[in-house]
Amino acid sequence: MTEAALEEAGGFITPVSMEEDPEAPFAGDTGTLDVAVRRVLVRLLQRRFLVADKNRAQWRTLLENQQLVESRLHDLFVHLVVDHDRGIAYKKQVRSAELDVPILLKDDPYGRAETLVLVHLRTVFQRERGAGETSARVDVEEVVQMVLTFFDPEDKNLAARQTEIRNAVRRLEKEGIIEEESEGRYRVTPLVEVVLSNERLVELRDWLRERTHGPEAASVVEQSGAAQPAGPDEEDPR
Q: Which intervals of the chain are annotated as region Disordered (predicted)?
């Protein structure tokens, strides 16, 4: 019997190369995850956060395949954190005293201006939520003036300090911690609670109280610390 006859009779199936396999996403693909799951995995590696409200399809895919995604990230010594209450997922570098872990995630800490802006945003968010508001908003000029009170009053280069603070605002906007609704007007997102935990917020407030410049800055810190931290502590995803 000829090869064609055997194939037609079901004797055997001629192997199909990966390059000709219509089911393969690309030539030579040896991956086992569905394309949609791969996209979620890449998104988590590329971005700092995956937010449910902005990526509903990918969020659903993540929840349906969470163990698979976690396994792939664990292969890279990276943890997956899924905050169901806030609808936020992010990754964390695995660190261990017992194991020599190669570091994949870049540690890009916030600078002085960014940290001060975060403290203000976190405080406003907490205060508004405590008052029953569903969202919190700030004006960029308000943020700049507040943060300036924590800089050395003898520093005469006011323009440079203002630029530093505005750059900090832009970075936090890029990371999704704030969203511009109109020119100079921002909505503070729940990501601020993840980036700046309650414990860290209290530490920073205490640190600022010790280093305030003048009565105006001291008053700002006292006002920011008036509201007690609420909600569970979140680990810093950095």
A: 214-238
Q: Do the beta carbons of residue 191 and residue 51 sit within 8 Å?
A: yes
- Rounded to whole angstroms, the maximal C-alpha distance in the chain is 98
What type of residue sits at position 93? Answer: Q
- pLDDT tops 70 at residue 238: no
Of 71, 70, 50, the residue nearest 60 (C-alpha): 50
Third-level CATH fold of 112-224: Arc Repressor Mutant, subunit A (1.10.10)
User: Given the structure tokens 């907490």, which residue do they identify?
Assistant: 126
Place of tokens 């393969």: 24
**pLDDT tens-digit map of 86-102:** 999 999 999 988 999 99
What is 3-93's CATH number, 3.30.70, 3.90.1150, 1.10.3470, 1.10.150?
3.90.1150
Per DSSP, helices labelled H in the chain are: 3-9, 35-46, 56-64, 66-75, 112-130, 140-148, 158-174, 191-195, 198-210, 214-224
Enumerate the CATH 1.10.10.10 domain ranges in the chain, comma separated: 112-224
- The separation between CA 233 and the C-alpha centre of its own chain, rounded to angstroms, equals 16
Over the stretch 187-226, which tens digit does the pLDDT of each residue have? 999 999 998 887 888 888 787 777 665 444 444 444 443 3
> Any idea what DSSP says for residue 24?
S
Distance in angstroms (rounded) separating the CA atoms of residues 3 and 179? 65
* Residue spans in the chain of domains classed CATH 3.90.1150: 3-93
The residues with which 178 forms a beta bridge, in sequence order, are: 188
